[in-house]
């Protein structure tokens, strides 16, 4: 780390250090079971190859887009062509004035951050694969002995993708994130409570928590892996997903609270957007006016009009 850097510049460099190609491993383990009849759930383990791109950098705002680029060995023993999938996105904003909180029951609401709390902080907003919100929190980066770490505040989150197909007994994940930049990549640690809500913003009164969970995602830099298919996807679909992000932003600018009709993953609400993006990735041209109308229709079909 260079000497005489401002704290702001150290923060920025830590965030930008997450850019690049990685082999990512995911490990989640329930450490405490609060249920009257404990059930030892199986640990979750997975991995992938992923590139993190800079979607936007305005100095005090940095957007990082994750794209999975996976190859598998077929039954014939040959390596397949790459499967490219738009993954999650994280936006970092310096001294942000507002954030969008998840309240449970597919509902998100804007909240103002007091100036005293916002001073020197960064919000990290995490978005789902269709660029709808997932969760947002604010915290501060710490730079000690050459190690940069950010610890978030506690946030409510929707049921994670790794759980929704196998768990129906809880609907809110309440947790914190710790990001640590390492010499070979970065690590995201999560401490989560699995909870049951009774209404947006409120947990049930009796035994609201089922279990405590620890999770870690290790992003280890990979060499000699071909991410060119991800590069093409990111370049060809960038303007489309930028228009989707702006359309979501317009809807949150017009309403303090938004409720989706169903969980994005479970209801496959993202599929029309992914299909359109794939057409662009395949090299097809789409009229900009028709595209804007398509995005508006797709997003409006996800949102409850009486929210």
Written description of the protein model:
22% of the residues lie in helices and 43% in strands. The protein is of the alpha+beta class and 307 residues long. The chain has one domain (7-224): Lipocalin (Beta Barrel).
Topology (SSEs and partners):
Layout: H1 7-16, E1 20-33, E2 44-57, E3 61-70, E4 83-94, E5 98-104, E6 107-112, H2 115-118, E7 122-127, E8 133-144, E9 147-152, E10 155-157, H3 161-164, E11 172-182, E12 185-195, E13 197-199, E14 202-203, E15 209-221, H4 228-254, E16 257-259, H5 271-281, H6 288-300
Antiparallel strand pairs: 1-2, 1-15, 2-3, 3-4, 4-7, 5-6, 6-16, 7-8, 8-9, 9-11, 10-11, 11-12, 12-15, 13-14
Please outline what is shown here.
With 307 residues, the chain is an alpha+beta fold.
CATH class: Mainly Beta
**So what's the oligomer here?**
single chain
- Please compute the radius of gyration using only Cα atoms: 20 Å
Number of helices: 6
Main pleated sheet: 10 strands, antiparallel, barrel
- Which architecture name does CATH use? Beta Barrel
